[in-house]
Design goal:
single chain, about 180 residues, 2 domains, two-stranded antiparallel sheet, 7 helices, about 45% helix
């Protein structure tokens, strides 16, 4: 093991121990908890707020938000174009929104998606939602799941041709 790798491992385990101490825990927190707290302000705040409620704290420690991939960068121009198309399509649908059951099903699919990311720094990705941002398209998921005209850009791993929301994926070809 290299010296740098050893230092990184020691500092991460030290940070896990220090974070546990801050939370009033006798043992270091899991590395996944530390990483999730560092990437999600709301998760970190929830942990700190739950210090005096052991059952809630344990529940939060057992299920940290998943942060699988590094943030994909979407340019402001790309986000603006996607947002504009989305708004036009939504207007064409009569500003139709999903019913509560469909919205919750879409939200749950997004929560389980490995492409889901914490909210971006871009103003066009601004969201206060725990759902965060779609790493594939850069859209705020709380808005995306609510708009009937939207679809998920991610394909189901075991079902080619179907997106994570259970919709058949159609490919639109630009007109010549």
């Amino acid at each position: 093991m290299s010296v740098l790798a050893l230092d990184t491992a020691q500092s991460e385990s030290q940070m896990c121990a220090e974070f546990a101490e801050l939370l009033g825990l006798p043992e270091p927190v899991d590395e996944a908890v530390l990483r999730a707290a560092l990437s999600s302000d709301s998760y970190a705040r929830s942990l700190l707020a739950s210090r005096r409620t052991p059952q809630m704290l344990q529940m939060l420690l057992m299920s940290p938000p998943r942060q699988v991939r590094a943030r994909a960068e979407h340019t402001t121009t790309e986000l603006f174009q996607r947002g504009s198309r989305s708004l036009v399509n939504w207007a064409r649908s009569g500003f139709s929104t999903t019913d509560p059951l469909a919205r919750e099903q879409r939200s749950e699919a997004c929560r389980q998606c490995p492409h889901r990311q914490a909210p971006g720094a871009s103003l066009l990705q601004a969201t206060r939602s725990e759902l965060g941002i779609c790493g594939l398209c850069g859209c705020p998921l709380s808005r995306k799941v609510s708009m009937l005209s939207e679809s998920c850009p991610g394909e189901m791993p075991d079902t080619p041709g179907v997106n994570r929301w259970g919709q058949v994926i159609t490919v639109s070809h630009p007109s010549n």
